Structure formats: structure tokens, C-alpha cells
Amino acid sequence: MEKRQLKGWALLVGATLVLSGCGGLGKMKKYVDNIKYTVDPNPLIVQGDSVDLNINGNFPGKYFYKKAQVELTPTLTYAGGETPFKTAYFQGEAAVGNYTVIPYETGKAFNYNHKVAYTPSMETSELMLMIMGRQGKKEMPFDPIKLTDGVITTPYLMLSDDKVLLAKDAFQRVTNHSEAATINYLVNSSNVRSSELSEADVKAMADFIKGLAKVTNINLLGMTTDAWASPEGELSLNENLADDRAKSASAWAKGQLAKAKSEKAKEEGFFTNNPRGEDWDGFKTAMQSSSIPDKDLVLRVLEMYPDVSKREAEIKNMAATYLEIRDQILPALRRSEMKLNYERVGKTDEQLTAMSKTSPDSLNVEELLFAATLTTDLNEQLRIYRECERIHPADHRAANNVGYVLMMQNKMAEAEAQFQKANSIQANPVSTNNLGVVARLKGDRKKAADLYGKAMAAGPEVKYNLGLINIQNGEYGAANSNMSGTNSFNAALAKMLGGDAAGAQRTLEQSPEKDTAMGHYLMAIAAARQNNGDLVRSQLGMAVQKDASLREKALKDLEFRNFKGQLGL
């Protein structure tokens, strides 16, 4: 807050003017030059869409004529027009009216606050005080008094760097897979029967291995074989039997790989055998899903007897039930489960780029979305996304990404239609964020803020976009919170407007815009607010070097009012 002695109205602190109580309007006009005042902020500054003015004032004792009335109207004047703030009304002790009464002997302090809508003409303006004195039917205009220079417009330096979002692809060039098959055995046997080799899953694994010679994009990683014995007979024999079954299954797979001339058949460590012994867990699961009449009794036996030999004996004592268990449950437990693990390597960038042109219909949605990211040519990106939209119309990402490219090409109306289309296919936060960007750029901040509130799941970019609205609304604390962790021109601007010029400088120094004309200009403002004249001059010099139009702006900019004649421009 800055106190200045001027010819005008406002604050008088400790000053006493010895005026005649019967002097009337003439003496009030004559001695108005000695009144002190405080204007806050000084200069004024646009915040949001308005200019807020606060004046603390004090009419001194023996100044305000008892029958007088005074109307005070702060007014921003500029080339081509003026904008008045609201009028404040005061009257003496004996005047007729309903205005604020100012006692003659003691005077009275008052506070004035009002705001007006900002217009660009106010950037170069003066705040003048218009005073009209009245006494009965007599009117006497006082000379207009300059209160302060015009309006700082630094918030309007905000760049429109709204974050429009692409819907991400889920393309993975290398994916992990497995081929699985199960071999079942006869009781007390580990021989692989020919009947088992004709089972669909075993044949599928054999065919997969056979076909490896014809493909180049599959890398075998290893085979694991888990083997079990049914829970009957001697425990040690069953443990050995499970081991033998794992070995026999692995031997079969190794033979298939050898026929296919795969080096993996000889690779040490490729095969991992896991003999599991008696499969009591599998037995319990099979019993639970069976329709055997006494299954609840059998399940209770499993819970009651942790000793596996005792379990088996008790179950065998249920003669009729055991026969059903032997025929329905146990055969499936005598098995080896093979899993051949491999990775599939997808198409190269070059292949995807070529196929997006020659045969886009042969690419899946993830491949097409990814292919579009392999070029920086917006027209080519648009072509690929449109192909994706044609081939995969049920996927909202293609529609959204067409809109993204159209936004980059400044075709906002077409882009908006695409974002709406994407949301009609599937409501999603990415397209909702993008519709928020469109709304803000069209001037509807409230709608944009509502859309951002629904789009937070799209990522931190949404909060950044909300921060732009905060800056425009003059909510600098919220802007700083929403832009936290971001080093950009606007994040620096938010810090500056929030009163942290040093923090703004640090943020700007790490931003991509630091070497642009506007980056240098904002750095000069940060320097001015820290009273660093050398940095002001050097940064303004670089700003003007990159953009000559900034010279005239700097010479009028009230941010540099304390450096007039020192800017070197």
C-alpha cells in the first residue's frame, strides 16, 4: 500500500485544517488540495474480469461545512472514454438528506470499495476523482483530482496452453503367452499313452510346436510341468510317481521340439519339472463339485484328519463311496500339466507405418492408434485416426483422437463434434476434458469447470486446465494449487499473481517458455517486483529483440513504473 501527498480526496491521517464553519463550498473546494489518501492497490490491477478499488479516507475536523453535501465518484479515464465507479455520498450535520454524515468538529474516517468490469482501454488510463459539492440548490464542481495511474494487466498475459488429450493406445510390441496341455495317466503309471496324445489340448500344443519353424516373431521362454499322483497308496511311492510323470511329460514335449528343429530342445534350464506328490487339494475341490451322496462326510474326514494315511484309510472304509471316488474323482488327479511359455513380438514401427497406408484393415485398433503416434505430420495422423475410426467404429478413442488433431489444426468446431461423438460411443474423462477446453476457449468458463470436475480421472492435465480458469477468475491460490508441480509460463504467472515473484522466477527458469519473447517479458516483471533493475533491463532487452511490439507495451506497463527512464528500450 502506497501513501502519497496529492491534490485530491481520500485519507487524512493526523492532519487538521483550520477552516471556518461558515466557509461553505468555496472553502471546501479551496482546501481539498491538502487532504491525504490511500488507494489500494496502487496502481490498480485487473483481477478476474474486473478492477477492484479500495480507498481509505478521513474527512478532517473543521472541514465539512454543516449544510453541504459532497458526491465523490472515482473514475477511470482513458483515450476515447471513461468508466466511473459508484458514487459515494456525504453530508454535513445540518444538511437535509440520507447520506453519510460527517461531523464538523471531529471529521470522520470512511472506507470505500467498489469494482467495475475491465475493458482493454483501461490498460492506459488514470484514476481520477470527480467531486461535486452541493448546498441547497447550489452546485459546485471541484477540479478533478488524479488518484493514481491506471490498471496493471499482468493477468492477461496468460497463454492459452490448454491441455487437449489423446486417448492412449494399449499397444505392446512384446506380449507374453502360454500354450497349455494336460496328460493323464493310469493308476501307478507314468507312461504317456497314445490315447492321451490325441486329446485336443495335447494335439494343439504339438501343432503349435510344429508351426514354430514357419514363424519368426515367437520366442520360446521355457516349459514348466507340474505333476501329481492321486491320494491313494503309499506316500513315498506317490511322490516318486509324480516325479516320473513330470519327466515323461517333459520328455514328450522335448521330442516335439526336437522334431521341429528347435534349439530349445537341448537348452539347459529350458524345462522345469515340479512334482507335487499327492493331490489332496485337487481331491477336495473335485469332491466339493461332485454329486457323490456322501461327499459331505468325505469332506469332514479331510478336515478331521491332517495325517494323509489316516485320511485315506477312513475314506476307504466307506466302501460304496470309495468305489465312486475311485471311478469319478481319482483318474483326473493322475496327471501332468504342461505350460509352454513364449513371447510374441509385434510388428515393427516400419511395418506398422507401411501397413497403415497399404492395408489398414489388417491392423487391430491398438496397432492403428500406435501407428498414428509414429509421425509428427498432423495430416498423416488425421488420416490414420480416421481409418481407425472407420475400421473400429465402436472404439471411442479413434473419434477422440480425430478431434485432437483437428484441435491442433485450429478446427475447433469440427473437433468439438468429434469429442461429443467419442462421448456418445462411451462416456470417458479424456473426451470430457477436451470438451472443457473447447468450452473455455469459447468463453464459457463455468461449463468448462463443470466438465473438468467430471474429467479428473483423465490425469493431472485436467487440474492444469482448471488452473487456467482460476487465473481468469482471479483465484490465484486455487491456480497455484491446481498447477502445482508444473513448470510452465502460466504456472509462473499464477505464482506471480499470488504474490510470490521469487517463486515465479524459479518456475519460469525451468519452463519451456523461458527463452520466448513472453518468457523474457514475464521474467522482467518478476525482476521488477523484486526490485532487480539489472534483470529487468536485460530481460526486457531480450523480449524486445524477439518481439519488437513488446517495446511499446513495456514503456506503458505499470509493472515497470519504478524503472521509467531506466529500461534502455
At a glance:
By secondary structure, this protein is an alpha+beta fold. It has helices at residues 24-31, 194-197, 200-210, 235-259, 280-288, 295-304, 308-317, 319-328, 330-333, 349-358, 365-372, 378-391, 396-408, 412-425, 429-441, 445-454, 460-473, 476-482, 489-497, 501-509, 517-529, 533-546, 550-556; strands spanning 2-4, 37-40, 44-47, 50-59, 69-78, 81-84, 88-92, 100-102, 108-117, 125-135, 138-141, 145-149, 151-152, 174-184, 218-229, 271-278, 335-345.
Description:
This protein has 569 residues and is α+β, with helices and mostly antiparallel strands. The chain has four domains: 2-152, Sandwich (Immunoglobulin-like), CATH 2.60.40; 156-172 and 349-473, Tetratricopeptide repeat domain (Serine Threonine Protein Phosphatase 5, Tetratricopeptide repeat); 174-345, 60s Ribosomal Protein L30, Chain: A (2-Layer Sandwich); 475-569. The chain is 43% helix and 21% strand. The protein is built from 23 helices and 17 strands. The chain has helices at residues 24-31, 194-197, 200-210, 235-259, 280-288, 295-304, 308-317, 319-328, 330-333, 349-358, 365-372, 378-391, 396-408, 412-425, 429-441, 445-454, 460-473, 476-482, 489-497, 501-509, 517-529, 533-546, 550-556, and strands at 2-4, 37-40, 44-47, 50-59, 69-78, 81-84, 88-92, 100-102, 108-117, 125-135, 138-141, 145-149, 151-152, 174-184, 218-229, 271-278, 335-345. The strands form three sheets. Strands 5, 6, 7, 8, 10, 11 and 12 form a seven-stranded mixed sheet that branches. Strands 1, 2, 3, 4, 9 and 13 form a six-stranded mixed sheet that branches. Strands 14-17-15-16 form a four-stranded mixed sheet. A hairpin with a 2-residue loop joins strand 10 (125-135) and strand 11. Helix 14 (412-425) packs antiparallel against helix 15 (429-441) and helix 17 (460-473) packs antiparallel against helix 18 (476-482). The longest helix is centred in the middle third of the chain and has 25 residues, at 235-259. The two termini are 29 Å apart.
